[in-house]
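Researcher: Let's do a round of design. I'm pasting the structure tokens now; please hold your answer until I've finished.
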């Protein structure tokens, strides 16, 4: 038997709050994260933040 999937419904306000929290956790802007990603200069934690930010952008339709 497979477990029931968990679905979180996020409002645009929730998405923006999560985005701000993620950026604050790494102490830089999305632009800086992407720039450093192109140089392969992110820590594992920063890379995970960048991936989550990109998922949030997708959900927001950006």
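Researcher: That's everything. Go ahead.
Model: Designed sequence:
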């Amino acid at each position: 038997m497979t477990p029931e999937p968990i679905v979180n419904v996020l409002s645009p306000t929730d998405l923006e709050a999560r985005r701000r929290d993620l950026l604050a956790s790494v102490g830089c802007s999305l632009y800086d994260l992407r720039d450093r990603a192109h140089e392969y200069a992110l820590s594992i934690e920063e890379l995970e933040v960048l991936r989550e930010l990109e998922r949030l952008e997708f959900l927001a339709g950006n």
